[in-house]
Amino acid sequence: MHLTYRTQQIKGWAQQLGFGYCGIARAKMLDDDARRLEKWLHKGMHGSMHYMEKNFDLRVDPTKLVPGAKSVITLLLNYYPEQQQQEGTPRISKYAYGQDYHEVIRPKLNQLLLLMQEHIGAVEGRGFVDSAPVLERSWAKLTGAGWIGKNGNLISPKAGSFFFLATLITDLELEYDDPFSRDYCGTCTRCIDECPTGAILPDKEIDGSKCISYFTIELKDMLLPEEMKGKFDNWMFGCDTCQDVCPWNRFSKPGAEPAFAAIPEILNLSTKEWELLTEDRFRQLFKGSPLKRAKFKGIQRNISFTQPP
């Protein structure tokens, strides 16, 4: 089968599955990224996220994840919400308004691989959505999806940065897109200037151990650092500040995936209502939500910490 036709087929299936972008890069060792990642880990900027120290070789070499890998397919799925939270409610990152993206995207990746196997032939591959040691943003840039901004997010010149990244690594040879070679951040430093905790450093380096998302989601300690008191800007789960202030997100439009529609309570619950929420009610309301990652005790901790004394 001709490479061009095969590649167009895959991109067509991706669009049918709801992905807003599908780009493909040749599978190769990510030498530059390996050096940057090693330096970042050495500085301890991953905080207590020790899982990032593991499987280093797998992160930078796709052939160790899929033997004989020839192609890395990057897919973007928009999650920008149609509705926003009520003013004054405890703030929640937009990616967590609806259902858990892992459970939404994983079946789509499986379906895409199945279509490839049914229509193209014997194809081996694995799909990843923020669940394995894959440098999704690096591959997205190599597939032409956009550039990595000063806030560490992949930015599309047409769609901003409110989208999920997914990766499908396969042993199928395809036509490859040109890498995105421009950086349109220019002299803008809004994300750096507005970051509440100073987690965004010059030269596109993010101190993950200072990020509000790290404190409110990843950090499992029941006591948050006192030096961060008063700096969370009412963010209860995650943080979107660096994306909200990015000029490129003026191009963001609401996504079409029904599963990402906002849970009403996320939009409307007041601080007092969150404080009075029982654990049983929390589990009922947010059974399929990313909020369950922080668990009930973590959410209560975060609410208490963000409120003034």
Secondary structure tally: strands: 10
CA-to-CA gap between the ends? 67 Å
Helicity, as a percent range: 25-40%
What integer is the average pLDDT?
A: 90
Radius of gyration: 20 Å
Globally, the shape reads globular
Strand order in the largest sheet: 1-2-7-4
In short:
The protein is of the alpha+beta class and 309 residues long.
Structure characterization notes:
- This protein is of the alpha+beta class and about 300 residues long.
- The chain has a domain at about 5-170.
- Helix content is about 35%, strand content about 15%.
- The chain has helices at about 5-15, 30-40, 55-60, 100-120, 135-140, 190-195, 210-220, 240-245, 265-270, 270-275, 280-285, 295-305, and strands at about 20-25, 70-80, 90, 125-130, 145-150, 155, 165-170, 200, 205, 235.
- The strands form four sheets. A four-stranded antiparallel sheet has the order 1-2-7-4, with helices on both faces.
- It is globular, with a radius of gyration of 20 Å.
- It starts with a helix and ends with a helix.
- The model has no long low-confidence stretch (mean pLDDT about 90).
